[in-house]
Amino acid sequence: MHDKPFPFNSQVEIPELQLEDKLPRHHSREFSQQLIIGAAAKEILRGLLEASNYTVYPFGYESSLSSLKMKISSNIPDSNAVQRIRSMPDYVVSSEKGLRLVE
C-alpha cells in the first residue's frame, strides 16, 4: 500500500490536443471534420441497428482492408477496381430474414 494519499486537489497540466497537428497534411481542416462526422454517423447507425436486434458486421474497405486503404490513398492510381473497393458497403447486417449490405 502507499503511505501517502493521492493528492486530489493537485493541478495537473494536460496538453491540449490540436486536431490539425494529428491529421495528415493532405487533408484540409474542413475535410478532416467531415471525416470525423462521417465516422460518428456510421457508429450511430451501427448502434441503432444493434439496438434493433440486428447483428452488424463491419465490412467496408476501411474496416477489413485498412492497410490497403493507406496504399489506395497514396500510391495506387485510380481505376475501376479501386472505385469498386471504395464503394464497398460499410456493414453486413444479419437478421432472421437474411443478410443485407448497408452503406
Describe this structure in words.
This protein is α+β, with helices and mostly antiparallel strands. The protein has one domain (27-102). Helices cover 46% and strands 14% of the residues. The protein is built from 5 helices and 3 strands; from the N terminus they run H-H-E-H-H-H-E-E. The chain has helices at residues 19-22, 29-51, 61-64, 66-74, 80-86; strands at 55-58, 91-95, 98-102. Strands 1-2-3 form a 3-stranded antiparallel sheet, covered by helices on one side. Strand 2 (91-95) and strand 3 form a beta hairpin.
* Distance linking N and C termini: 52 Å
Q: Order of strands in the sheet with the most strands?
A: 1-2-3
Query: Low-confidence spans: pLDDT under 50, at least 5 residues?
Result: none
Structural class: alpha+beta
Separate helix tally = 5
User: Would you tell me the overall average pLDDT?
Assistant: 77
Radius of gyration: 21 Å
Tell me the series of helices and strands, N- to C-terminal: HHEHHHEE
How would you describe the shape? flat
Number of domains: 1
Q: Which range does the strand content fall in?
A: 5-15%
Total DSSP E strands? 3
The major pleated sheet works out as: 3 strands, antiparallel
Bin the helical content: 40-55%
